[in-house]
Amino acid sequence: MLTHLFWPGVAFVATCVAAFGFRVALFAGFRRWTGTPESDSGFLRAIRVPSLLWCVVLGLVAAIQVADDLTMSRRLAERLGMVLQAAVVLSVTITLAGVLASVVAAASERKSMGGGVTGLARTSVRLSVLVLGLLVMLSSLGIEITRCRTTSWSCRTSRWRAPSSRTTTCPSRAWRCRSV
């Protein structure tokens, strides 16, 4: 029943293993080149977790390519493409959040700011980037947050009328607004 997913699965596992091996070698080479342990390098700390996701994304690309060559259904190809886009957006978001938090920490250490200010600034930057990344990821998955949010805000001053037969989670589709 799932025999059509065997070769894409093999491609996924093989590519992930090769990417993980390359990642380990790259991290070891970078540590040797800089002469600092991983815990001291802000760059390595910032890309440690996202690089794992990059390895999985490479595996997904290989699996999608093999499955596409084996005449995968169009619907499955579209779904896998959306998952791939979401994984790339998530990876970039986590990377940017880590790198910008490291930059804020380094800048605040140079200016001799207190530890509480540094922690608050790092958390604020990281949270802002993660929220924006989440919105972009939801948009790439086809979920439109802005239209739902603006519609519900503009309908607060009006009367609500119950939907006829359709039900969705977005207020712009589930409820119709009438002016008072």
Describe the structure.
The protein is mostly helical and 180 residues long. 74% of the residues lie in helices and 3% in strands. It contains six helices and two strands. It starts with 5 loop residues before the first helix and ends with a strand. Mean pLDDT is 76; it is low at 156-162 and 164-180. The protein has a two-stranded antiparallel sheet with strand order 1-2. The protein has two domains: 3-143; 144-180, no CATH class.
In short:
By secondary structure, this protein is mostly helical. It has 6 helices and 2 strands, in the order αααααβαβ.
Write the layout of secondary structure elements.
Layout: H1 6-34, H2 42-69, H3 74-110, H4 115-140, H5 145-154, E1 159-161, H6 171-174, E2 176-178
Strand/helix succession: HHHHHEHE
- Fraction in beta strands: under 5%
Numbering strands along the chain, what is their spatial order in the largest sheet?
A: 1-2
Rg value = 23 Å
Which stretches of 5+ consecutive residues score pLDDT under 50? Answer: 156-162, 164-180
Characterize the overall form: flat
Ends apart, CA distance between termini:
57 Å
| Overall structural domain count | 2
How many β-strand runs?
Answer: 2
Helix coverage percent: over 70%
